[in-house]
Specification:
Elements lengths: L13 H11 L3 E5 L8 H6 L1 H13 L3 E6 L1 H4 L9 H4 L11 H21 L4 E4 L19 H23 L2 E5 L9 H10 L6 E5 L2 H4 L5 H8 L3 E6 L1 E4 L19 E4 L8 H10 L6 E3 L8 H15 L18 H7 L6
Parallel strand pairs: 1-2, 2-3, 3-4, 4-5, 5-6, 6-9
Antiparallel strand pairs: 7-8
């Protein structure tokens, strides 16, 4: 919802945007916790009555809440000082220029999110990890020995009390694997998981578009980490490198970068294979459209997205295609087919 919320109807409050989404054929919405026009996250954490009211607004439109998301708040859990001024925009004005207070505020918002998710009957929450080491991702000068280990230890230390609150509430923290975050690929996810002592709530929000932009195999990623995936963003992307620019983009605007986000169906992600992989492994979470496109109007992307996702979803079979040729188990007959005889 974060890409659509605004001052104009039908995007100006939770009721209106839910009715609009339902009209397009969506079955649920993912609510960003920082949008006060949709939810008061502290109130939802502390009042079951208020949480029920929010849930009721969504259900009255014929939808359900798929998850809450806290991406720009999660970002503030871990911020390198080089980015302090830029990330102040994600926090209330009274916290600007106060990085320690901003981090404490962000941690509280995440803990509110855990309790609000419990009150709303949700079992997964989407966020960013934040980043202490991103400025060293392509190191020059080279990284000092032990820096990466120390960075992940500190990241885990900042997240541990938050993760424990989510554990108390029975809700997974699904980190979107995303460039700019310390958790930006499988290796960094594994490092963080290890640093947290394999915390049971450290899960993955899978978004294949970010793997396209990193030239990663987004299908093999599901082979490796399918048991950790508990959220899924359906977002498309394309990567067209040139003799002038590649992965890093040359500081160009999105529309001119070799790697850029597109509305689903307009990029290079093979969603038929993605949905087949997730279905194969029994990944049963919501398929949530995330619209980010450097060309197409968001309302067109949303309309097309509902139709495409509906087409991609696979209704699983309860029988094998060649069952008609089968028969009941007959041990004696099987032994004959195998050429086995009794001594």
């Amino acid at each position: 919802m974060a890409q659509f919320i605004g001052e104009e109807q039908p995007f100006n409050n939770l009721k209106n945007i839910c009715e609009w989404a339902a009209g397009l054929g969506y079955e649920g919405v993912q609510i960003p916790i920082w949008e006060s026009s949709c939810i008061d996250i502290k109130k939802a954490a502390e009042s079951q009555t208020y949480a029920d009211e929010i849930k009721g607004i969504v259900e009255e439109a014929g939808l359900v809440i798929t998850e809450l998301s806290s991406h720009i708040i999660g970002q503030l859990v871990a911020v390198h000082p080089a980015y302090n001024e830029l990330f102040d925009a994600f926090a209330p004005e009274e916290l600007h220029g106060k990085p320690e207070e901003r981090q404490e505020w962000a941690a509280r918002q995440l803990q509110y999110s855990a309790r609000a998710s419990r009150n709303l009957g949700l079992d997964a929450h989407g966020t960013f990890s934040g980043s202490l080491m991103w400025h060293t991702v392509y190191p020059w000068p080279q990284r000092p020995a032990g820096l990466v280990e120390a960075g992940f230890d500190e990241l885990a230390k900042k997240w541990e009390p938050i993760l424990n609150t989510f554990e108390e509430c029975g809700v997974d923290v699904c980190y979107e694997i995303h460039p700019g975050e310390d958790l930006h690929d499988g290796i960094t996810y594994e490092r963080f998981l290890e640093a947290t002592g394999n915390h049971p709530r450290v899960k993955i929000l899978y978004d294949p578009s970010h793997f396209v932009l990193q030239c990663m195999d987004y299908l093999e990623f599901t082979d490796i980490y399918h048991d950790k995936i508990n959220m899924f963003h359906v977002k498309d992307a394309e990567f067209n490198s040139t003799g002038r620019s590649g992965v890093y983009g040359g500081y160009q605007p999105w529309i001119d970068r070799p790697g850029r986000f597109r509305s689903i169906g307009d990029g290079q992600v093979d969603f038929k294979k993605v949905f087949s992989k997730l279905t194969k492994y029994g990944v049963g979470n919501w398929a949530v459209l995330e619209w980010e496109c450097c060309m197409k109007h968001p309302e067109d992307g949303a309309r097309e997205g509902a139709e495409l996702i509906n087409d991609y979803i696979i209704r699983t079979t309860d029988k094998a295609f060649d069952d008609f040729a089968g028969a009941e188990t007959d041990e004696e007959f099987n032994n004959k087919v195998l050429g086995l005889t009794e001594d």
